[in-house]
Amino acid sequence: MSSVYHDYSTFKNVTSFADSLQNFQQVDGLNTFEQIWGAYYYYMGNDLFATGLLFFVTHEFFYFGRCIPWMIIDRIPYFNKFKIQDTKLPSSKEQWECLKSVLTSHFLVEAFPIWFFHPLCQYIGISYQVPFPSVTDILIQLSVFFVLEDAWHYWFHRALHYGVFYKYIHKQHHRYAAPFGLAAEYAHPIEVMLLGFGTVGIPIVWCVLTGNLHLFTICIWIVLRLFQAVDAHSGYEFPWSLHNFLPFWAGADHHDEHHHYFIGSYASSFRWWDFVLDTEAGPKAKASRERKMKAAAEKVQKKSQ
Ligand SMILES: [Zn+2]
Ligand SMILES: [Zn+2]
Q1: In what residue span(s) does the Fatty acid hydroxylase domain sit (predicted)?
Q2: What residue ranges do the domains of the chain occupy?
Q3: pLDDT digits (tens, 9 = 90+) for 89-101
Q4: Given this model, what pLDDT does residue 18 score?
Q5: Cβ neighbours of 290 (radius 10 Å)
Q6: Rounded to the nearest whole angstrom, what is the distance from the C-alpha of residue 122 to the centroid of ligand 2?
Q7: Which pairs with CB-CB distance under 8 Å and at least 24 residues apart come from 229-232?
Q8: What single DSSP character describes residue 236?
Q9: Residue 75 Cα to ligand 2 middle (Å)
């Protein structure tokens, strides 16, 4: 019996998912998402399996679901003018090779640890019961995860660009100088684990420290993070791209330069780390760095005169 809810005394017999949903619809004060969540766990009847399947399907569905629109856009000539590196459209062969590698990694590398996630949640106290936490709680935690993951990604991604780390690990992700959505998770297994810790490990550490986290929040976080990663690799810059409204948001404009120049712009979601530490990629950032260095040199020269 599932532990998704604390009191099944009024529940009627369940033989299908619809029956299970009907039972949760009778519970006072549950919203639609909570009813579906509860019905899913109750119907599955095995919480470990339910969590594993939920995470595996969420990952596959939202990763590929977000990649497909970009693959369609690649084939519509109207959108060519928004392509950042306009001469480099990914060929079908390149996309196929990338798809095979990403699928292999999902099924061989990630499909395995996903089944240990539920026992881990229980051990550190990540809740999966209904009702969910408040919207405010969810939004605060999502913001914290975005900021911390970005910092983690900045430093470890920057480290992956050093000598042997680049040669043996990170080089694989840089195979495509002009990235496309599917290439977001095209990476060496060590890189998947190292940078993946920023996505999965940070919420775990958060829960160990605060004792307050729900599995539903982790699901939303993973979906948003997948969207961020796929979009950053899309290769398109539109007038309506998010960073035009939120100047500190990184987006494709930021990460495409990283793939193009192989250096600089290391952060994932935001621009502040690269801005403050002067590691922005591309000719514009290089010119501004040179201007700053020249101004500093002239200042020193004036002082010594
Ligand atoms: Zn890189
Ligand atoms: Zn990349």
Answers
A1: 144-279
A2: 46-304
A3: 778 888 899 999 9
A4: 95
A5: 10
A6: 33
A7: 229/184, 229/185, 229/268, 230/63, 230/66, 230/67, 230/70, 230/181, 230/182, 230/184, 231/66, 231/181, 232/184, 232/268
A8: B
A9: 22
**Per-residue pLDDT tens over the stretch 25-83:** 999 999 999 999 999 999 999 999 999 999 999 999 999 999 999 999 988 999 999 99
- CA 173 to ligand 1 center in whole angstroms: 7
Q: pLDDT-based confidence at 258, cuts 50/70/90?
A: very high
- 115 CA to centre of ligand 1 in angstroms: 30
Ligand 1 centroid distance, CA of 166 (Å): 8
**For 127-146, b where at least 16 C-beta lie within 10 A, e where not — what string?**
bbbbbbeeeeebeebbeebb
> Of 63, 232, 245, which Cα lies nearest the Cα of 149?
232
Closest ligand to residue 265's CA = 1
- The alpha carbon of 266 and the centre of ligand 1 are apart by a number of angstroms equal to 7
Among the bound ligands, name the one nearest to the CA of residue 162: 1
Nearest ligand atom owner, CA of 255: 2
Where would I find the H helices in 171-234?
189-210, 215-232
Quick one: tokens of 101? 């590698």
Residue 9 tokens, joined: 């005394």
Q: How far is the CA of 250 from the centre of ligand 2 (A)?
A: 12
